[in-house]
Design a protein that fits this description.
alpha+beta, 6 helices, five-stranded antiparallel β-sheet, globular, 2 domains
Amino acid sequence: MKIFKAISLVFLLAATVFLPACRTATARQAQSALATPPELLQLTYLYEIVRYLYRWDLDESEIESVLGQKKFIFWVCPVAAKLDAGDRSQFAEILLPQVNVSVKVNTIEELGTQVKGRNFKITHVLRGQVPARQPADCSLVTVDMQEMRDYLFRTRDQHDYPDAALVEHLRQALREEERKQGGVVTNLTAEERVVHLAPLSPVANESWVFWEAGRKLLYFSSDIDLANPAVWRNESLMVRVYDLDQQVVVSHDEAPGSERFLTRYQVSRALFNCILLGQRLEVPAYTPPGPK
């Protein structure tokens, strides 16, 4: 409760960023009849997958291991899923065999509601589960390594941050969480209200925020496209708060099965994205609503 009180004061009139929660479990099945969605084969989309991994998951040794190769390989696989009536959501998996990483992505579209996330977004990044050979149901995409590196270098300063509407949506989500946890603290100084927002990724519905004075990392995620106002009435954000003095471990083996802890490696990546690549904001002081 204390964590959310302290955080919300910082974020009441300010913004943050987010990462997608998993929606429905899917299993790879015999699915030769499934066609690979063409948008997953677009080079710009695949380059953004690599950028996301570079910023959040791949370490230096993994990057260096492929730089000398002429081609970078993607196996793009549609994934069958058992869906409810009227649910036209799509699922897929992008395999990167050279770094032994698989990326699960999906779109969300439920008929009869306004819940539609038309772009494929990352839900999971997994290691060590890529088969030795290309699965028969997967499409092969080979890109020129130098061309991909040139694209990523040209766009290295591309940092997208939440607009005013999304900031308001995030603020409301935090207020709701505050109400659940027992109230709002309003007496922070200007220095205590400084936060750092990590850039948004076009292939992920998530965001990280570092609250400097509170020594907290905030993580926001959603199943749907966060920037689409039409869906905000139907979905809520998942909010997690990590106390950097209490919830950091060397390895997840220290707390198996728990999502309450971050490793030192995860914290370093989050701080890199929030501080070095992110946007520094001084959040306006909270002003209680006036009488109706």
